[in-house]
Amino acid sequence: MDWFRRKLEKIHPSQKKSIPDGLWIKCPSCAEILYKPELERLLSTCRKCGHHFRVSPLTYVKLILDDDNYEPLFTGLKTSDPLSFKALKRYSHQINEAAKKSGDQEAILFYAGTMENRPVILGVMNFKFIGGSMGSVVGEKIVRGIKLARDQSLPLILVCASGGARMQEGSYSLMQMAKTSAHLAKFSEEGGLYISVLTDPTSGGVTASYGMLGDVILAEPGAFIGFAGPRVIKQTIGQDLPKGFQRAEFLLEKGFIDHIVARESLKETLVKIIGMLK
Question: Are the beta carbons of 227 and 203 closer than 8 angstroms?
Fold first, then answer.
């Protein structure tokens, strides 16, 4: 029968639809397969286990500050190479590559904006810029942010994400711990409100300085927070360590942070804290 026969010129049984690459991602915590557009709508948090993926600084800026009501600060500051440092690559080349990769000129961005119509100063670190490392320009930007918040009597919020001090700058980098800590101490003495938000990861010199000096210290769920890595600590003390001892939940239990806040609730929580304390 003619209607039972295939029309070969139009039907291709073996033809398959192509699926674009990069639409799916596996959650590193629960192995759930996630659809990327849906993941972005959920602020890059897993729908099954709540795992918080690392996101760009601009994501936090748009999440925390009111829409189209913020301006960048200290954009003219750029890193130099004070030690003419060279290893496998010259430090100057690393800086240029990091700028191309991250789209930013440094590992921290600052903004003046509003949050529910309340003016604030916001700094957000960029882990994609040489691991969010703290160099002299990062320290200088933070100090300028502190001074601006103090002069205008505004709350200061820092969203931290860092592997620690930037050793390509040697002692210049290490001095930023003392520099930022001293200015935060003065800011606190004069009644300033500083809130630190620790994201995954926050470690090294950032943890040893401004990361843990907030009047209120918040953290995202599951964030790695510590000074040295677990293997280094184990080799140093020669003992097994508690499971998850450098995660936000363990630090909350031990009193090192004040509250764990899911990304979707971050702005609401910050608004409440500032409303009570400022």
Answer: yes
| CA 28 from centroid of its chain's CA atoms | 18
Q: Nearest Cα to 152, choosing from 57, 60, 278?
A: 278
Tens of pLDDT, residue by residue, the chain (278 residues): 555 555 555 555 555 555 566 799 999 999 999 999 999 999 999 999 999 999 999 999 999 999 988 999 999 999 889 999 998 899 999 999 999 999 899 999 999 999 999 999 999 999 999 999 999 999 999 999 999 999 999 999 999 999 999 999 999 999 999 999 999 999 999 999 999 999 999 999 999 999 999 999 999 999 999 998 888 888 888 888 888 999 999 999 999 999 999 999 999 999 999 999 98
Q: How far apart (Å, rounded) are the C-alpha atoms in residues 245 and 227?
A: 12
Q: Is 144 exposed, middle or buried (0-12, 13-18, 19+ CB in 10 A)?
A: middle
Distances (CA, A) of 142 to 74, 79, 126, 158: 10, 14, 14, 9
Q: What are the start-end ranges of the E strands in 36-147?
A: 70-73, 108-115, 118-125
pTM: 0.90
CA contacts within 13 A on the Cβ side of 195 = 25
Residue 263 CB partners (closer than 8 Å, separation 6+)? 43, 44, 45, 52, 63, 220
Rounded distance, CA 205 to CA 172, Å?
12
The domains found in the chain, sorted by start residue, are: 14-53 (no CATH), 54-277 (3.90.226.10)
Distance CA(278)–CA(272), nearest Å, equals 10
Residue type, 185: A
